[in-house]
Amino acid sequence: MATWNLRNFPFRSERGRPDEGPHDLERMRATLRALDADVIAVQEVLDDDALRTLAAGRTVLLSRAGGRGHQRVGLLLNPDRVELLDGPREHDSITAGGRVRPALSAYLRVGDLDFHVVVVHLKASPHGYELRTQQWATLVEIVEQLRQDPGPGAGDRDVVILGDFNTTGPPGRDAVGAREQLELAALDRALTGAGLRRLDNRTGCSAYWEGSRRDAWKEPSWLDQIVVPAEWLPSGTGGGTRAARSVGHCARHECAPLRSSSAYPEADFATMSDHCPVLADLHASG
Fold first, then answer.
1. Which DSSP state fits 257?
2. Structural contact between residues 269 and 249, judged by C-beta atoms closer than 8 angstroms
3. Whose C-alpha in 171, 172, 181, 231 is 20 to 30 A from the C-alpha of 81?
4. 162 near 155, Cβ under 8 Å?
């Protein structure tokens, strides 16, 4: 499975703004092929037809709503390996009255494993921290609702959450990395009660941002998360899901600051997204 924020696809900026051109679609298609993921969660989709063209051959599920920025969330499924058992369902309880994006869920079968999957794109920026903590509580409620509601997935406690959690940390004067770790620890505590665990990212970041200097140097950040049932994690020498990893420019630059300018662009950052795809091989340990 994978999650990838597509950066206001297909414009790479807010709809209609001329300051950034369209995405490099061929580069994005090559990236999707290289991921070879059964399930890919996507965020910041502005044009559903453009996404279907990009992901030709995949089953495309998209939310109807996208908050004030019309940034929709979705799933790209490999029809040869993934069976859609139920859904998709849109959860607007997490939108703060329509201001931000809904969650999207579906009930899937991959091989002999059935599970719920939920896609999220939570409120951005340190100033959105308080709202994000409220969204975590609502997300836990959505998970419990999926486990209990009648239908094909009733009683199945296996839930995977994929998406951009925007874990920037709360406002403050501490270093960005320290504030991120504070939020990640708080998020982990919120998920534990629902029997969920956030995977570590062995690459160390999932996106780049302009940084405090606002020059050609971009700073790494860890915003995108994959959350799995706690029992899917390995115990002892058994199997199970161990860690996520970022690919693309995050891996290539080893999550060190990178330089990208109009004269010397970092190709993935400049022509696809500031976020990198995050990938994990998911399977139950038992």
1. -
2. yes
3. 231
4. no
Q: DSSP secondary-structure letter at 92? A: G
Nearest partner of 110 among 158, 144, 67, judged by Cα: 158
CB 189 within 8 A of CB 172: no
Which long-range contacts (C-beta less than 8 Å, at least 24 apart) are formed by 185-190? 186/133, 187/136, 187/225, 190/133, 190/136, 190/137, 190/140
- Dig out the tokens for 56 from the structure: 């030709």
Cα maximum dimension of the chain: 56
Residues pairing with 105 in the sheet: 89, 118
| pLDDT (0 to 100) of residue 285 | 56
How does pLDDT run across 197-221, given as a tens digit for each residue? 999 999 999 999 988 777 899 999 9
Degrees to nearest 5, angle at CA 274 with 33 and 271? 65
Query: pLDDT value at position 68?
Result: 96
Q: Give the Cα separation of 60 and 42 in Å (integer).
A: 10
Domains recognised in the chain with CATH numbers: 83-279 (3.60.10.10)
**How confident is the model over 139-180, as pLDDT tens digits?**
999 999 999 999 999 999 999 999 999 999 999 988 888 999
Distance CA 90, CA 102 (A): 7
